[in-house]
């Protein structure tokens, strides 16, 4: 797997790489993929294009970043949200019910929907607060 990832990276020479950072994934696939990417990156560390490459770690519904640990947020449209939901439904291991950090078992689509709404609400409150739209905005409660 490492050689395949390495070959792809050498071909594309990306400026940005997005890799799963939610190593609490109950299926273990995120850890395996992340380990393969980092092993490939280690082998490619001296390549010229790597000097301009930024690695972004993301988390999913299993273990989201705390709001003060987020360096970049990418807004998505309703159409992109539908695409995200449909993609989850096509992934066999995500179609089944999943346990989420000691909570009630939920499907991945339910977790994703809830996670996306909560994050969007927090970011909206932060944005409004930064523009002094609502000076007393409580950003701790989405």
Structure description:
The chain has 142 residues and is mainly alpha-helical. The protein has helices at residues 2-12, 29-43, 78-90, 92-95, 108-130, and strands spanning 16-20, 54-58, 97-98, 106-107. It contains 5 helices and 4 strands; from the N terminus they run H-E-H-E-H-H-E-E-H. A two-stranded parallel ribbon has the order 1-2. A two-stranded antiparallel ribbon has the order 3-4. The longest helix has 23 residues, at 108-130. It starts with a helix and ends in a 12-residue tail after the last helix.
| Tally of contiguous helical segments | 5
Compute the average pLDDT: 77
Biggest pleated sheet: 2 strands, parallel
General shape = globular
Radius of gyration: 18 Å
Helix and strand composition category: mainly alpha
How far is the N terminus from the C terminus?
A: 40 Å
The proportion of strand residues reads 5-15%
| pLDDT < 50 stretches | none
The total strand number stands at 4
- Listing every helix as H and every strand as E from the N terminus to the C terminus, the arrangement reads HEHEHHEEH
Residue share in helix: 40-55%
Spatially, the strands of the biggest sheet line up as 1-2
Write a short abstract of this structure:
46% of the residues lie in helices and 10% in strands.
SSE inventory with pairings:
Elements: H1 2-12, E1 16-20, H2 29-43, E2 54-58, H3 78-90, H4 92-95, E3 97-98, E4 106-107, H5 108-130
Parallel strand pairs: 1-2
Antiparallel strand pairs: 3-4
């Amino acid at each position: 797997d490492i050689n395949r990832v390495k070959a792809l990276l050498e071909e594309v020479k990306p400026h940005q790489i997005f890799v799963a950072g939610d190593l609490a994934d109950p299926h273990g696939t995120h850890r395996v993929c992340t380990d393969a990417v980092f092993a490939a990156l280690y082998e490619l560390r001296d390549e010229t294009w790597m000097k301009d490459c930024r690695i972004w770690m993301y988390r999913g519904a299993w273990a989201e970043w705390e709001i003060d640990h987020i360096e970049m947020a990418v807004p998505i449209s309703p159409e992109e949200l539908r695409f995200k939901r449909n993609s989850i439904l096509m992934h066999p291991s995500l179609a089944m019910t999943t346990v989420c950090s000691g909570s009630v078992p939920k499907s991945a689509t339910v977790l994703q929907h809830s996670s996306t709404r909560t994050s969007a609400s927090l970011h909206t409150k932060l944005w409004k607060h930064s523009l002094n739209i609502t000076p007393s905005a409580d950003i701790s409660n989405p």
